[in-house]
Amino acid sequence: MTANITRHLLLMALATALVFGGCDDDDDDSGTTDTDTGPVECNLGEYDGYFEINTQSDVTTLAGYTSISDDLYINCPSCTDLSELICLSSAGRGLIIRYNDVLTNLDGLSALTSVAGNLSIDYNDVLTNLDGLSGITGSVGVSLVLRSNFALTNLDGLSGITSVGKSVAIRNNDALTELDGLSGITSVGEFVYIESNDTLTNLDGLSGITSVGEGDWGGFEIAGNAALTDLDGLSSLTSVDGKLWIANNAALNNLDGLSGIGSVSLGLSISNNAALTNLDGLSGIGSVGDLSYPGSGLGIYDNAALTNLDGLSSLAWVAYLSISGNNVLTNLDGLSGITSVGGGLSIYDNTALTNLDGLSGITGPLGGGLSIFENTALTNLDGLSGITSLGLYDCYGGLMIIENTALTNLDGLSGITSVGEELEISSNYVLPDCEVCELLDQFTDGSSTIDVHDNLDDTCTPVPTNCP
What we know:
By secondary structure, the protein is mainly beta. The protein is built from three helices and 32 strands.
């Protein structure tokens, strides 16, 4: 009986050893180098080609691969878990994460260290963070795009990125309040877009960027960020090789963060910033524009609270100059440093503007046309007395003085002898026709079309030779 019990115990011990590990073998020389990542073995090497994940089972198909030679698309409305991608360390081209309706995190991509092409994260409705991408370091080869991720609150998972080959675009991320996760970026090859992020309050995460742009492909756009109050995060920016747009930022009250910029090579546009009262942050800019690019120059448009342009006092040259729709702006004195305009000059619909004296430094010819439209408080044009002729920049040249309902004389145009292709002086209801006739008499070459109507009808004595 005792012998039977002993035999039974020995058999149980042997079974237990076989089930729960068998014998240790410290001398295993099987040669395997598999990485232990729990249930996924990283032993499949590189996936050749591009791969698109549309279902949860597609995630399983890619499990075990350590890299992919082409683009990886994660476009999976039903996916909830990317943990089986834990082996993936590099994307040979781009990583595009788009239209994942129920995906809340990217933790399954935590082994990823490099993206050679585009890193694009778009339209992921419940994605709250990018922490799963914290392993990416160095450069994103082409572009970094974050668009319409409505629950995304921060970009901290991108803190290892130091440069972007072409562009950075942060658009329509409604819950994003700051960009601190981008603070490691010091270089962007072409363009930065920060657009329509409704709760974004600052740009401090961009403080490492010193320059952007590459001519007509480059620049900086900050537009439609309703809660943004300042641009202090751009204080390291010294040059924009391309275009700089600041538009439709309803709470933006100053541009002081741009004070380090010395030049903008193509265009500078400040428009529809309802709380902006001054342009003091632009005081370092000496020139704007390039005549080889049509439309290049300076535009100040529809800033309802803008009271002065004093921040542009260092500006000496612009390719094109347009000031319009700034309805509490009373003068242009901040432009007194401008001595030359390579293209056209347009002053339009500034209802409180009383004079143009700030343009008195402009001497010699304009490269393009001169347009003075709908400035209902403007009484004279004396600040234009240094202009001698108008040209045909951008295929347009001419003189347009239209609907300036308080304008009483044209004495400020007394130096102009040539106006190019077209002349219209109309609907200036207190401007005597005799003033127009005297102006026409001083031209040494005629315009191809002349349109004079609806000014103050009077009788000139004697009648000038060219009175229409």
